[in-house]
Amino acid sequence: MSETTDPEVAKRPTLGTMRRKAVDVSRLVETNTIDGNPLPLLITPAVDGVDLAEWVANNQDELNGYFDRHGAVLFRGFGLSTAEDFEAVASAIVPDLFAEYGDLPPEGTSEKIYHSTPYPADKMILFHSESSHLPTWPLRQFFFCIQPAQEQGETPLLDNRRVVNELDQDIVQPFEEKGLLYVRNFSPGIDVAWQDFFKTDDRGEVERTCAEEGMSCEWRDGDSLRISQRGPGVTVHPRTGEKIWFNQVQLHHVACLDAETRDSLRQLFAEEDMPRNVYFGDGSIIPDETMERISQVFEDLSVELPWQEGDLIALDNMFVQHARRPFVGPRKILVAMGQMVRAEELA
C-alpha cells in the first residue's frame, strides 16, 4: 500500500523505523516500539503457530500494562484472516464486547463485530475517542484489517496524554472547566437515521432512552430529531488517574470540515440544524482559531499506521484517539469495542 506524499505527514514516525528488543526464546511473542514514539506497541509471534486468542487470555495483566504505558497495541503476523478470528481475539481481551452500537453497520450475523464508518473514501474521518460525547463509552476498542486500501487509508493514532500536555494551557483550561455540549440532528438522508441509531422506531422509547442517558431530545419537522449531550473536554483516566484530553471536538466542530463539505452543509442547513456541532458546555462558541490550533497539534503528534492484511489494533479508547485518512481502492476494516465506562464512574 502506498503511503501519503504529504511532506508533513512523511515526517511522522512510521512502522518502518522500529527499535527492536531482544527476544526471550522462552516467550511466545516479542515486542517492538516505533523509534522515538511508544505508540503503538508492536507485538509479533516469536515462534510459529502462536494462538493469539489463547495468548491474550493468559496474559491479561501484562496486556493491561501495555495499554497503560503505550495506549495501543498492534498485533501483526499471527495469521488472522476472518471476522471470526478477530472476534475470538477481541473477546479474549474483553469478554463483554458491546453489541448495541448504532453508528456502525454490523458484520454478517455477528452482533459484536462492525464495519468501519461508512464515510466517503475521499474524505478524512477526523480524530476522536469513540463515544466520548456520550454518557457511556468503551475503554477498549479494536480494529482488524481484512483488506488494506490500494493507497493510503491509514488509521492515525494520537496520545491524549500528550495532547493535554502540549496544547496551549489557555486552550486546555476552558475545555477542562466548561466541558462540551454536543448537538446532533438526525435528518432523513443525512447521516445515520435516528431509527437505526436508537434501534427503534418508537418515539416514546427514544425519549425514555434520552432521559435515562441524560440527553435532551426535540422532535423537528419532517421526522427529524435533535439531541444534545454534555460531555467532558478533559478528564482523568480511570485506571491510572492521569489527566487526558477526552472528547470529539474535532469530529463535531463545523470549522473542521473540509471547505467543500462545510459549504455544502451550510447551503442546506442553518447553523443550529447542522448534522453535528459542538459548543463549550455553557453554550458559548468554540472559536475557529482554537480549532485550527488543536488540529495542528493533532497532526504534529499523530502516528501513521500503514495497514497490512491481518493486522489487529487494540487500543485504550481513553488514552488514544483515532482517525482515518482518505483512500483509494477497496478497503475493509472491522471494528469491535467493549469494557464500557460510564461518566458518573469518573465523577
Low-confidence stretches: 1-18, 20-26
* Radius of gyration from CA coordinates: 20 Å
Q: Overall 3D geometry?
A: globular
pLDDT averaged residue by residue: 89
Fraction of residues in β-strands: 25-35%
Largest sheet: 8 strands, mixed
The amount of helix comes to: 25-40%
Largest sheet strand order:
1-2-3-4-16-7-19-5
The helix count comes to 11
Distance between the termini: 44 Å
Number of strands: 19
Secondary-structure element pattern, one letter each? HEEEHHEHEEEEEHHEHHEEEEHHEHEEEE
Q: Structural class, judged by helices and strands? A: alpha+beta
Q: What's this model, at a glance?
A:
Helices cover 27% and strands 29% of the residues.
How would you describe the overall organization of this protein?
There is one protein chain. Strand 2 (29-34) and strand 3 (37-45) form a beta hairpin. The strands form 5 sheets. The protein has an 8-stranded mixed β-sheet with strand order 1-2-3-4-16-7-19-5, covered by helices on one side. Strands 11-12-10-15 form a 4-stranded antiparallel β-sheet. Helix 2 (52-58) runs parallel beside helix 4 (83-93). The protein has 11 helices and 19 strands. The protein has helices spanning 7-10, 52-58, 60-70, 83-93, 160-166, 169-178, 194-198, 203-212, 249-252, 259-268, 288-301, and strands spanning 18-20, 29-34, 37-45, 72-75, 114-115, 125-128, 136-147, 151-152, 157-159, 180-186, 216-220, 224-231, 234-236, 243-245, 276-280, 312-316, 320-324, 327-328, 332-342. With 347 residues, the protein is an alpha+beta fold. It is 27% helix and 29% strand.
